[in-house]
Write a structure and sequence with these properties.
The longest helix has 16 residues. The radius of gyration is 23 Å and the shape is elongated. It has 248 residues and is α+β, with helices and mostly antiparallel strands. It has a two-stranded antiparallel sheet. A two-stranded antiparallel sheet has the order 2-3. The two termini are 30 Å apart. Helices cover 42% and strands 11% of the residues. It is built from 12 helices and 4 strands, in the order H-H-H-H-H-H-H-H-E-E-H-H-E-E-H-H.
Length: 248
Amino acid sequence: MALSQKWIDTVEDGLSNREWDAYDTLIRSEVGECVCSAQEAGYNPRFIENTASGYVCVHWTLVKAMLWVESGGPRQASWATRPMQIGNPGDAAYGVLKNGAEGSALVMSPTLFNAIRTQSIDSPELNIRAAIAYLFTRMAKFDVQTVPDESDQTIHSVTVVHGDSLERIARRVGTSIDELKKFRSEVSTTQLRVGEKLRYRKTRTGRVIVGWRKWDFVTIAARYNGGGDPAYADKLAFVANLFPRLKR
C-alpha cells in the first residue's frame, strides 16, 4: 500500500531529530536482552528459557518502530501522554490488560498488572509498557491444561487402597496423573501397591503459553492493530528501514 508523503515526511523527521529516541531506554529495558538469566529483566529472558514453546528473541527496535507508527512522533500531544494509544476511545487493549484477560495475566508481571489497574494510563511510560504487554499477549499462543495449583504449595499424600489406579486417585484427591507420576518417579515398578503412600500437589485447569506466532510485520499488524490501519504493516517496514540511517 502506498504511504502518503505527509506521513513519510513526519517519520523521516526522526532521522535527524533525537527527540524520537526519548523512550529507547524504557523499551529496551522492558523487552529485555536475549539471555537466560534470572537476574535479567524483560520479556526476552522470561520467555526464551522455555525452548519448547518455540520462542525467538524479539529485538527491541520492533517496539520502537511501533512507537513511531502509533505516536506520530514528539510533535504530537499524545507523545507525552498516550504515545501507543492504549486507553484511547475504542481501544480494546486497555480493558484486556486491566482484567488480565486473554492470557495477559500470564504475560505481564504482577507489578505491571497492578500498575495498569491503579495508575493513570496517561503516563507515557506506563502507556508504552502496557502496549508491549498487549503485543506479547497477542503474539502468544495459549492452551488450557492441568497445572499445579499455586495457591496450595503443600505436598499432600494419599494411601493406595484395593482397586486404586492413578486415574482414580487423581480424581479423588484433586490432582493429575502426571503429578502423581512425578513424585513416584523414584519407584522402580509402575504397579501400585496397596498401602503405598503417594505424594502429590493439588492441580487446577488453567491457561498456559504453548507457543508463539511469527514476529513479522504482517502478523503484528493483524494481531496487535487488528486491521484498524490497513497500511500498518507497510508503515512498520518503512520505519524499520529508516533505523540504519539514523544520524546519531
